[in-house]
Amino acid sequence: MSTLLLSPADLDELARARVLLDRPSLAARLSNLVGSPLEKGIARLPASWRGRVGALAHDALLKALETAARTLKPEARDASPRLHKLLGSVSGGAGGAFGLAGLAVEIPVSTVLIMRAILDIARAEGEDIGSAQARLAALEVFALGGTSRSDDATESGYYAVRAALATTVGEAARHLAEKGLTSEGAPALVRLITMVAARYKVQLTQKAAGMLVPGIGAAAGAGINLMFMNHFQDVSRGHFTVRRLERAYGAEAVHAAWQTLDPGTA
User: How many structural domains is the chain composed of?
Assistant: First the structure.
């Protein structure tokens, strides 16, 4: 399909979305914030906590999928990014004050807040946040973002992740439409959350490592959570812009237009 199907204005929007989705990894930005390579913080993580973070990520995503949409009105309205940044900072400050023990409590809370912010942006981009498709697209955001520039040519970033999740997302959407949000008897939904949690776990480990850098406390915990919220809001804006354009032009036309863009332009 010809990329000329996209209007100049929509092609500009797609370019801005690609910049958001191809930004440097969260790990690189966290290292800049804490002033120390994250590898040093990761080395300080207890082995028992590294094993636990995967279960924390899985349970937090499931809870977020269950509860976040219920805290938002379904009617279309502009997003409220500042509110979610404030809530995320408060949550991070509390977690940072208590170190790893605090994170075990803070991670589920911050994940619900992030999911709420994602759905808030999805709603502003025309998604029906009560639908299974929109809620699963919001879940995908936790697996997106943070590609390196060397990955752009091979598309091992945004479109590759969506392709890897596509079959399981479709199966999970059918289950949600038929039976609602229950994990019992929903292997596709459990499998999808496990796949997303595997990527989200990496980001949570980086978050914990940043908080273990000497001198990090409540204030820096708030700053790290603000960076997390910024990251997922940016990825959400990119992802749901692409989805809005796909609804207007078709997925193939938008993908073809994406491939023609210079990833460094906005």
Answer: 1
Domain range enclosing 201: 3-260
Write the DSSP assignment of 214-226 as a string of letters.
TT--HHHHHHHHH
- Report the length, in residues, of the chain: 266
Residue 131 lies in a domain: yes
The pLDDT of residue 241 is above 90 = yes
Going by pLDDT thresholds of 50, 70 and 90, the confidence category of residue 154 is very low
C-alpha span between 201 and 111 (Å, rounded)? 12
Tokens matching residue 167: 């079959």
With respect to residue 154, please indicate whether it lies within any of the assigned structural domains: yes
Kindly tell me if the per-residue pLDDT of 91 is higher than 50: yes
Is residue 265 in some structural domain? no
Are the CB atoms for 67 and 112 separated by under 8 Å?
A: yes
* 210-233 pLDDT per residue, tens: 666 555 555 566 677 788 888 898
- Answer yes or no: are the C-beta atoms of 27 and 38 closer than 8 Å: yes
